[in-house]
Amino acid sequence: MEIIIVADADEGARIVADQFEQIVREAGSTGATLGLATGSSPLPAYRELIRRHRHEGLSFAACRAFLLDEYVGLPAGHEQSYHRFIRDNFVSGIDIDDAAVISPDGTADDPAVEAARYDAGIGAAGGVDLQILGIGSNGHIAFNEPGSSLASRTRPVVLAESTIADNSRYFETREDVPVQAISQGLGTIGEARRIVLTASGQNKAEAIAQMAEGAVSARWPATSLQLHPEVTVVVDEAAASRLELADYYRHTRRIVDHHTGTGHS
Ligand code: F6R
To answer: Any idea where the Glucosamine/galactosamine-6-phosphate isomerase domain is (predicted)?
Structure first.
């Protein structure tokens, strides 16, 4: 796991966007398969990618994308559905084919059947080339709440009380927040060829420390990422504040940047 501690959101956004740009350019006309997250954490990176599309000719026309999750009960057009969120905040600003941006159907009669169909669809498309993730303050990724099997597949899940409280900022009242979602599983996410997780703020500090340095355990679902060979974590100083090895991560980055001559600032 490569941990990059950044000075501000702009620097983080550039580093995450660089990863997307590399994958998209490498795939060329074949098109990359992108794994997209909703929530506030990826927004600076999405804005940077929209800027690169508009001003630097970065094209997503050949790409396809799968979302991590969707609320059960919200139709695609609902203003808080993740189907809508990703269009409002990313997809409408780039040239990807809208029909190639796929999410679970939160209104399916049988969410378990829909979840299995969705999981199989990711595999049938050849898997995800680059998955972007946020992290919950309780250590969830997608909606894999504490207690999730490390081998879990896409399935219906019940949101933790803390997640409902965290996400109530998007809804008028806490009672409006759906209590269930269809979420990619930890096993599903782990099949992405590369993963970039981004987080900011003090309320993510414990989750980040557990994810990077804690024991692998269903208690902190993001620890499953320790088993993946290609994970980059981009965090600000506040989110990094409980990392015991923060000095080592900074030192590593200085050495790597010196040898590759890249630098990220
Ligand atoms: C979003 C998702 C969630 C969020 C997490 C962090 O699709 O699956 O795991 O990434 O809840 O949310 P923010 O970024 O809003 O703090």
So the answer is: 9-226
The rounded Å distance from CA 259 to ligand 1 centre is 34
- Ligand 1 centre from 29 Cα, in Å? 30
Note the pLDDT tens digit of each residue in 190-231.
Answer: 999 999 999 999 999 999 999 999 999 999 999 999 999 999
Single-letter residue type at 229: P
Active-site annotation holds for 144:
no
pLDDT digits (tens, 9 = 90+) for 44-85: 999 999 999 999 999 999 999 999 999 999 999 999 999 999
Closest ligand 1 atom to Cα of 140: 9
69 belongs to the catalytic site: yes
Nearest atom in ligand 1 to the alpha carbon of residue 82 is 7
Cβ atoms within 10 Å of 206's Cβ, excluding its own = 17
Is 236 designated active site? no
Structural tokens at position 135: 């992290």
The residue annotated as part of the active site, out of 89, 138, 144, 167, is 138
pTM for the predicted model, two decimal places: 0.96
pLDDT tens digits for 75-112? Answer: 999 999 999 999 999 999 999 999 999 999 999 999 99
